[in-house]
Amino acid sequence: xRAVLPLPPGLIDTHVHLWDPARGHRxxxxxxxxNRAFDLPDLMAAVGENHRSTTMIxxxxxxxxxGEAADLLxxxxxxxxxxxxxxxxxxxxxxxxxxxxxxxxxxxxxxLLGVRQQISNxxxxxxxxxxxxWLEHHQLVMELNMRWHTLELAAVLARRLPExxxxxxxxxxxxxxxxxxxxxxxxxGLAGVAxxxxxxxxxxxxxxxxxxxxxxxxxxxxxxTLDVFGPGRxxxxxxxxVCLTAGSWRESISAGLGVCTVDEVDLLAAGTAxxxxxxxxxxxxxxxxx
Length: 290
Description:
8 strands; alpha/beta
C-alpha cells in the first residue's frame, strides 16, 4: 500500500483534467474506467477536506473541438478551487493559433495560464517558435508532453523561447521499464532540458507508468527528476483522474511529496508553481462554490 502523506496548506496541484465523453474525448477507450464524466464535484470529492486550501490548474484533455478550452476557462471563473487553465490549441496550425487568439480575447482570458503542445521533430519547433513574441507578450507558459527519448527537442524549443517558461509534463515521460540504459538516457535528457534556465518540470503521472517486471517506482521517478531540476523548478501534479487507474488523488500527490526534504516542501508544493504560473496568494478559507 502506498504512503498517503499529510498535505501542506496552500498546495497547488498543477495537473488536473475534467471531461465528459458525451461531449468528445475520442481517445477514451470503450470499457475504460476513465470513460465517464469527471466533473468539478468529483474533483472536490477526491480532494476532500483539502479543497479549502488547495488550488488546481486545469489542463485541457484533447476533446478535439473549440469548446473545451472555453468551458474550462469558464469553470476557472466560477469556482475558487481552480487557479487557472492550460489550453491545448495546436500552434503548429493556423487554426490552432487563431483559436488561441480568440481565447486571449475572451472575457475569461485572465484565467489562461499556458498552452500545452506536442512536438516530435524540428519542423514542429519551427512552427511553434514562430509565436515567440506573442507568448512573451501574454506571459503564457509553454507545456510539453514528451517521451524520454525525445527530450532533446524540448531543450531546443526552450532555447528558441528564452523568455517563456517551458514546463515538462509527467517527469519528462520516463521509460516504463527500469533498464539502466534507458534510465540513464532519460536522466541525461532531463539534464539537457534543465540546462536551459527557463525550464521546469511537473512531478506528475508517475502512478500510471508501472509496466513490466521491474518498473521505475513512483518515488524513484520523482526523486530522480527532483534531483535534476531542484525544488525551485519542480512542481506537484496529480494527473487526476488519469491517476485513478492506479491510485487516489492523494496517493498521486504523495508520490511527489514523499521524496521531499523539509527544506524542499514549500517550493515543490506551491512556491514554484505560484511563480511559474503567476498565481497570486489568496485566502481560501471560504467555501468553494459548486
